Amino acid sequence: MKQKLKIAIAVLIGFIPQISLCQEAADVYYGGSIGLTFGDVDYVEISPMVGMHFTPQLSAGVSAMYRWRSDSRYEPELKTEDYGATVFVRLHVSSSAYLQAEYEYLDYEVYIYPGLTTERRQHSSLLAGGGVSQPIGQNTYAYATALYNVDYDEVNSPYADPWVYRVGISVGF
């Protein structure tokens, strides 16, 4: 059932760019997030995003992610790099609230004990949920999104629990 749902959403997402070719003028928006933490564990994450409105209520887009960690609590110091991509569809149900579905692919490193080595893994997730956006300037919005990983696997997921939270800023043109 989950595999069929993933295929159905992937097919739907695949047709959206074809629909947009019929539009004379589409609103493109971009944004993303940056995360920084420094201390015993240094952490840098960059996640740019670009999307397009196909109607006033429907938009879709893509996002890329790069994350670097350095953990000095161990000897030798552990360093990892993760990267991934997301394809999303967003349906605005009001001027400030939206529903969102997305497919996410991550290629990430995990710590392996004992020996303090790392192992590279790949993981795909189907996430669904919603969020809110508030204008903070002309064509600039702050957003917060809560997504549930519908195919969450406690053993193999890169996330500690099935809920994923995101906060960021997007700018439209």
Shape: elongated
Radius of gyration from the CA trace? 18 Å
Q: Strand fraction band?
A: over 45%
Structural class, from helix and strand content?
Answer: mainly beta
- Mind telling me which CATH architecture this is? Beta Barrel
For the secondary structure, the number of strands is: 8
CATH topology: Porin
Provide the helix percentage: 10-25%
Spans where pLDDT lies below 50 across 5 or more residues:
1-25
Q: From N to C, what is the helix and strand string?
A: HEEEEEEEE
Number of domains in the coordinates? 1
Q: Whole-Å distance between the termini?
A: 39 Å
Q: Helix segment count?
A: 1
CATH class: Mainly Beta
The order of strands across the largest sheet is 1-2-3-4-5-6-7-8
The largest pleated sheet is described as: 8 strands, antiparallel, barrel
The overall pLDDT average reads 82
